[in-house]
């Protein structure tokens, strides 16, 4: 009986033992999914809330979690600044807050705190739309600081720059895909602006390499609000980069371009800025063309300039399978594509593009935050902070939970829900919630 008791105890704690961090804005697998179990399907702003913590202002950035630390990039509405914050994951106590820059926004749709932080457990890096880059240790001591906009030129974007940093293969990667000429006075005046990928030493912030990425795109179509994503094929590591009308693969050792596929914009439309980041698995890399255009599945393993034979399939015959803003998730062998404009969530087979199911998103507000896929469920959140929980197997709606009913609505809620250590973390304009069974 004692042996049975011990066995029961081991089985009972197994889900906690398998829990994982959420170190990157798209999670431990870089694809919006996690192996977390026993995540809640129903809660409220008071029920099943482990803790909630006030936030100084709105931001579209996603929290990241490492061990007992939750890191958040935020604006401070009253102080007029962008700040780096750290909370205790267990109790929600704010451990530290650092003012980074005395600017909040330049347009009504976004803030300078839109990029999400990234951590490897030893350091956490915050990157802002002002170009300011700060690295801290878990106790909040600053390790180094740089401003890539001041070093390499003012960002040439019509809207506010927003690309999240990546820690991978012992390097810190920053991506700036921008217009080649100034826009509304922003950008270099005496020469062409260059789009680039920058690799830094995470410990010191020193430059390891800077790769200039060419583009044939025109005007706003050169702008990308995507983030670089790591990928490995045949034991070879690569960086996937989307923007400027093309998808490219790069060697993380030196930034050299290994292959390129393009384009979803053959007529070179001038207003096709790119927002969804790439997601790869099951032999293909998913590319979401802008606006309401199709998604494309590009075969892995190519080199050089790829032609149309590299396209495994596209969703031209299923117009609801599209995404203008949210980055798709990969989970349970399939892609989950959230369309903010078509108001649909779809489960898609990677090898063929077959649509397993497609459902309308609840309510009448937009869902621009990228989906979380975990524990047999898909979690999405709309502009009003209404969280929809859907069954991953059939798309059936499980619950809709309002999380920001009393907030001022000063900005749409765009921060993705994340899961770590058996808990959900939900960010609204004014609060960070930790929810668990």
Can you tag this structure with a few keywords?
437 residues; mainly beta; five-stranded mixed sheet; four-stranded antiparallel sheet; 5% helix; 38% strand; globular; disordered N terminus
CA radius of gyration: 21 Å
Portion in beta strands:
35-45%
Main beta sheet strand tally, sense and closure: 5 strands, mixed
Count helical runs.
2
User: What form results from the Cα inertia axes?
Assistant: globular
Structural class: mainly beta
**Helical content, roughly?**
under 10%
Task: Give the rounded overall mean pLDDT.
Answer: 93
Distance between the termini: 29 Å
Poorly predicted runs are: 1-18
Number of DSSP-assigned strands: 33
What does this structure look like?
Helices cover 5% and strands 38% of the residues. It is mainly β. β7 and β8 (132-136) form a beta hairpin. The longest helix is centred in the first third of the chain and has 16 residues, at 2-17.
Secondary structure elements and pairings:
Layout: H1 2-17, E1 49-54, E2 64-66, E3 69-76, E4 81-88, E5 94-101, E6 118-119, E7 124-127, E8 132-136, E9 142-147, H2 148-152, E10 166-168, E11 171-176, E12 196-200, E13 207-212, E14 229-233, E15 236-243, E16 246-250, E17 257-261, E18 279-281, E19 284-288, E20 295-299, E21 304-306, E22 311-314, E23 329-331, E24 334-339, E25 344-348, E26 355-360, E27 372-374, E28 377-381, E29 386-391, E30 397-402, E31 418-420, E32 423-427, E33 431-435
Parallel strand pairs: 17-21
Antiparallel strand pairs: 1-33, 2-3, 3-4, 4-5, 6-7, 7-8, 8-9, 10-11, 11-12, 12-13, 14-15, 15-16, 16-17, 18-19, 19-20, 20-22, 23-24, 24-25, 25-26, 27-28, 28-29, 29-30, 31-32, 32-33
């Amino acid at each position: 009986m004692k042996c049975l008791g011990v066995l029961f105890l081991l089985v009972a704690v197994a889900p906690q033992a398998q829990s994982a961090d959420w170190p990157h804005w798209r999670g431990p697998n870089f694809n919006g999914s996690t192996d977390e179990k026993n995540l809640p399907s129903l809660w409220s702003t008071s029920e099943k809330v482990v803790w909630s913590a006030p936030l100084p202002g709105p931001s579209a950035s996603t929290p990241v979690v490492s061990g007992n630390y939750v890191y958040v990039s935020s604006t401070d509405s009253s102080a007029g600044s962008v700040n780096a914050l750290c909370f205790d994951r267990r109790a929600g106590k704010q451990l530290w807050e650092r003012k980074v820059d005395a600017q909040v926004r330049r347009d009504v749709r976004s803030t300078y705190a839109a990029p999400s932080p990234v951590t490897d457990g030893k350091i956490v890096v915050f990157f802002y739309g002002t170009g300011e880059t700060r690295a801290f240790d878990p106790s909040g001591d600053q390790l180094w600081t740089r401003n890539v906009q001041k070093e390499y030129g003012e960002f040439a974007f019509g809207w506010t720059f927003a690309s999240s940093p990546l820690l991978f293969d012992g390097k810190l990667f920053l991506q700036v895909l921008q217009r080649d000429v100034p826009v509304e006075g922003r950008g270099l005046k005496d020469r062409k602006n260059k789009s680039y990928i920058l690799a830094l030493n995470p410990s010191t912030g020193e430059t390891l390499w800077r790769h200039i990425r060419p583009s044939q795109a025109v005007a706003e179509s050169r702008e990308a609000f995507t983030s670089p994503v790591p990928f490995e094929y045949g034991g070879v590591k690569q960086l996937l980069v989307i923007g400027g009308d093309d998808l490219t693969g790069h060697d993380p050792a030196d930034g050299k371009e290994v292959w390129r596929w393009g384009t979803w914009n053959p007529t070179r439309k001038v207003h096709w800025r790119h927002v969804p980041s790439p997601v790869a698995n099951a032999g293909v890399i998913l590319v979401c063309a802008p606006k309401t255009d199709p998604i494309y599945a590009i075969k892995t393993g190519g080199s050089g300039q790829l032609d149309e034979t590299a396209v495994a399939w596209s969703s031209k015959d299923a117009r609801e399978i599209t995404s203008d803003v949210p980055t798709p998730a990969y989970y349970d062998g399939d892609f989950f594509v959230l369309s903010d404009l078509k108001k649909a969530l779809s489960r898609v087979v990677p090898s063929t593009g077959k649509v397993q199911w497609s459902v309308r998103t609840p309510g009448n507000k937009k869902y621009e935050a990228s989906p979380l896929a975990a524990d047999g469920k898909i979690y999405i959140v709309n502009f009003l902070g209404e969280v929809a929980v859907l069954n991953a197997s059939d798309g059936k709606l499980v619950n809709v939970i309002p999380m920001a009913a009393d907030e001022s609505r000063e900005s749409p809620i765009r921060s993705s829900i994340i899961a770590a250590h058996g808990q959900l973390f939900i960010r609204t304009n004014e609060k960070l919630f930790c929810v668990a069974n």
